[in-house]
Design goal:
Length: 144
């Protein structure tokens, strides 16, 4: 599935719609360059789960947990991990194979740790289409 947006609000809405239908145990990866809108998408996704706390990029903590929604959200940002070992140190597998929903920014950096059954969300810019244009490609289990 491919979406095109022209504002942060539209990207937020797509995240929100996915959050509204998210199921326990889902792992969603978010890829795309710095500043492309991964955290905007995550904020919408959290709102869709009914989470009413502010969502920030958890860059300095790797993982942030939110318990106030319909399903627990584990929001990862693995941009700064230096070594895959760090993921085992934070107990990564318990989150991935647990009952919550995992949303992982920069998941491509830990691709060898991810289960096969994931929903991947890739966001990209196309500067010829304007500064606020984003293409959002969602692939669910390899099906577009
Ligand atoms: P990332 O988490 O990918 O590094 P952020 O979500 O923190 O990126 O930031 C995205 C930035 O791009 C925000 O400043 C947002 O306002 C801006 N932006 C402009 N157009 C869009 C769009 N269509 N979708 C999402 N963000 C957009
Ligand atoms: Mg971010």
């Amino acid at each position: 599935m491919v979406y095109e947006t022209n504002s942060p609000e539209e990207t937020y809405e797509i995240g929100k719609k996915m959050g509204e239908v998210a199921k326990s145990g889902e792992v969603i990866t978010l890829s795309g360059d710095l500043g492309v809108g991964k955290t905007v998408f995550a904020q919408g996704f959290a709102a869709g789960l009914g989470i009413n706390e502010p969502i920030n990029s958890p860059t300095f903590t790797i993982i942030q947990e939110y318990d106030t929604g319909r399903i627990t959200l584990y929001h990862f940002d693995v941009y700064r991990i230096a070594d895959i070992e760090e993921m085992y140190e934070i107990g990564f597998e318990e989150y991935i194979y647990g009952d919550g929903v995992c949303l992982i920014e920069w998941a491509n950096l830990i691709s060898e740790l991810l289960p096969e059954n994931i929903i991947s969300v890739d966001i990209s810019k196309a500067l010829d289409k304007g500064f606020d244009y984003r293409k959002i490609t969602v692939i669910n289990n390899g099906l577009r």
